[in-house]
Amino acid sequence: MDKHELRREFKDKIDDAFHNIQKLENKSEELSGRKKEELDERISELQRKKDQMDSFYEELLNSSEEKANEIGTQFEKSKEDFKAGFNKIAQAF
Questions:
Q1: What gap in Å lies between CA 46 and CA 77, rounded to an integer?
Q2: Could you tell me where the DSSP H helices lie in the chain?
Q3: Angle between helices 3-30 and 65-92 (to 10 degrees)
Q4: How many CB atoms lie within 10 A of CB 17?
Q5: Diameter of the chain measured on Cα atoms
Q6: HSE (CB half, 13 Å, CA atoms) of 63?
Q7: Is 47:89 a contact under the CB 8 Å cutoff?
């Protein structure tokens, strides 16, 4: 996959992550007490994972074509970590 295709894919995945976090934040507003605190903590963890994906995106923008595939591999791992974290939260709440 070339750098431009990776950039589009990264952007789409980051947008999805943002929307998923927003959904959880909306859910958090409906909760109170310990459940709200727990969900807010997990949302913060997801936000850090999304921030890592953002970092890889920025790195991709400034990378050479050769480095793009390596960054793509790192991004995929980060995306999978985010997805696993989101699914775990979605099941719990």
A1: 14
A2: 3-30, 33-61, 65-92
A3: 20
A4: 22
A5: 50
A6: 19
A7: no
Q: Closest Cα to residue 54, out of 75, 35, 31?
A: 75
Supply 77's token pair: 């791992």
Contacts of 89 (CB under 8 A, 6+ apart): 24, 39, 42, 43, 46
| C-alpha closest to that of 87 among 24, 35, 32, 31 | 24
Sign of CA dihedral 22, 26, 31, 37: positive
- pLDDT tens string 39-89: 999 999 999 999 999 999 999 999 998 899 899 999 999 999 999 999 999
Is the full-model pTM beyond 0.85?
yes
CA 51/CA 78 separation, integer angstroms: 10
